[in-house]
Amino acid sequence: MISIKDPNRDIIERCYELMRQSKGIYRHPTFLSDYNYKVDWITTTKKELEIKDKVITTLLSPLKNEKVNTLLLSGGHGVGKTFFSLQAASIAKEFFSCEGRDYHYCRVNCHSNNTYHRIFREIARELGFGDVWSSEQTLAKLREKIAGEEHFNVILDEAEMVVPGGRNKKTIDHVLADLYELNLEEGGSIVLTCISNDLDFSERLSTKTLNKYNPIYIVVDPPNMKTLDDILRYRMERAFINPQIMQDESYELVKAYTAREGYNVKYALNLISKAADECMNSKSATITPEHVRKAREMMGSYSFDSIVWNQLNDQDRIVLYSIAYVVRHGSGYQKFSNLPASRVFTGEVYDVYCKACKKSDVDALSLRRFGDRLKKIGSLGLAHLSSSGEGIRGNTTVIELMVDCNEVIRVLGNSTSG
Ligand SMILES: Nc1ncnc2c1ncn2[C@@H]1O[C@H](COP(=O)(O)OP(=O)(O)OP(=O)(O)O)[C@@H](O)[C@H]1O
Ligand SMILES: [Mg+2]
Measured in angstroms, how far is the CA atom of residue 188 from the centroid of ligand 2? Predict the structure, then answer.
């Protein structure tokens, strides 16, 4: 039998081989960097679009002479909070420049600038005021600029890292209050974006400050599988000379591991990058599942424990445990509905939760506040929440556990006597 070969295909393969020999497998490796914010902003769901719209509209409020608000953005690790804020700020800048207005934005990493004074010094440096500036000088300069019709978006990233500092032990509350005060006096030109990994960040702020500036709360949920897939394909197409270097099976593994890490995009990019290094070291023509597994081993496995102990509070843990318990023991309503075993109804989980609280001698939350805890667990990628539609229990929330129920019970079993 004569095999028909596409001659173009051969030429393309030979070209890839030549480039591979001269440059390795990469075209632009920076596309696999988790700090690359100069990429397209990918949105696939209605909810993502709504959030995008809300953030950009808030940034544009000074243009419409509307009240200027503070944005409080929170969400799990690597879900795109920093990227999101920077993209929104750069879109706002374009709008302002179309209107002939001066617009500046800056991002202060509060991890490395973790006190009141360091934050203002960094704002001055980022906005090009000069190098060593005191907070008073920075505020005075901002006031002068606002008077000159300039507009600002100050992004305070990783805001939960700020500690009381200086003689007066000033905190993040003081940073927000002083910038807010400036806005009040000067008619509002600074939009503040405060980013935190702590989904309960607002609880760290004083109620006095919160009541005063009444911020807009936005939770950045982890991307769903479709968005994650689009982000990763976009990056691989640009990073590799030949994106086909990633075997289909290996790519499925990358996505599966990332799902277990709460859909952390940074994790996915690092995993691909390390698997690609493995592929180069072993002089293989493609990235195999074995390369991905090796990369995962190098990165340290499963961060579920760390999410549970670092990002969940006691109440959250009991809620998570209750979901796992209902999943493991089977939903009582399963036989009346078409739900797969990993999906359970909120009401059932709430019943188990109340019993678990009683056993642990903890006050059970109301159903509404229990719902807030569920949302937090959803935002960390540990569960997926959806509406059941009209059914046996009316319209209720269906919870799908995204991690193995036995894993949850193993990790939380001793601390929760549910
Ligand atoms: N919607 C998106 N479209 C394109 N790229 C995205 C999107 N969301 C996230 N990314 C990419 O994911 C990576 C991680 O995003 P980012 O650094 O903003 O996460 P984060 O939530 O701030 O993480 P951390 O909590 O660790 O600070 C970045 O490289 C970013 O480009
Ligand atoms: Mg960040």
Answer: 26
The whole-angstrom separation of Cα 205 and Cα 357 is 28
Whether residue 100 is found in the same domain as residue 159: yes
The torsion of the CA quartet 16, 28, 79, 403, rounded to 10 degrees, works out to 30
For residue 235, with 0-12 CB atoms within 10 Å meaning exposed, 13-18 middle and 19 or more buried, which class applies? buried
Decide if 38 is inside a domain: no
For the segment 116-154, what is each residue's pLDDT rounded down to a tens digit?
A: 999 999 999 999 998 778 999 999 999 999 989 999 999
Asked whether residue 334 falls in the same domain as residue 371, the answer is yes
Q: CB count, 10 Å around CB of 340?
A: 9
- Cα of 34 vs centre of ligand 1, distance in Å, is 7
Counting ligands in written order, the one closest to the CA of 35 is 1
**pLDDT greater than 50 at residue 3:** no
Closest atom of ligand 1 to 78 CA is 23
Q: Is residue 316 part of a domain?
A: yes
Is 231 close to ligand 1, i.e. is its CB under 6 Å away? Answer: yes
In a domain, 235, yes or no: yes
303 CB burial (10 A radius; 0-12, 13-18, 19+): middle
pLDDT value, residue 300: 67
Nearest CA to ligand 1 atom 31: 37
Q: pLDDT higher for 301 or 207? A: 207
Does residue 80 line the site of ligand 1, with CB under 6 A?
A: yes
Q: Do 173 and 246 belong to one domain?
A: no
Decide if pLDDT at 252 tops 60: yes
Q: 279 with 386, same domain?
A: no
User: How far, CA to CA in Å, does 242 sit from each of 233, 272, 330?
Assistant: 12, 14, 46
Q: Is residue 103 domain-shared with residue 123, that is, in the same domain?
A: yes
Same domain for 267 and 401, yes or no, is no
Q: Structural domain of residue 212, as residue ranges?
A: 46-219
Q: What is the Cα–Cα distance from 95 to 97, expressed in whole angstroms?
A: 5
Question: In CATH, what number is assigned to the domain containing residue 278?
Answer: 1.10.8.60
Residue nearest to atom 29 of ligand 1 (CA): 34
Q: Is the CB of residue 41 below 6 angstroms from any atom belonging to ligand 1? A: yes
In a domain, 29, yes or no: no
Mind listing the pLDDT tens digit for each residue in 374-403? 999 988 888 888 877 655 555 688 899 888
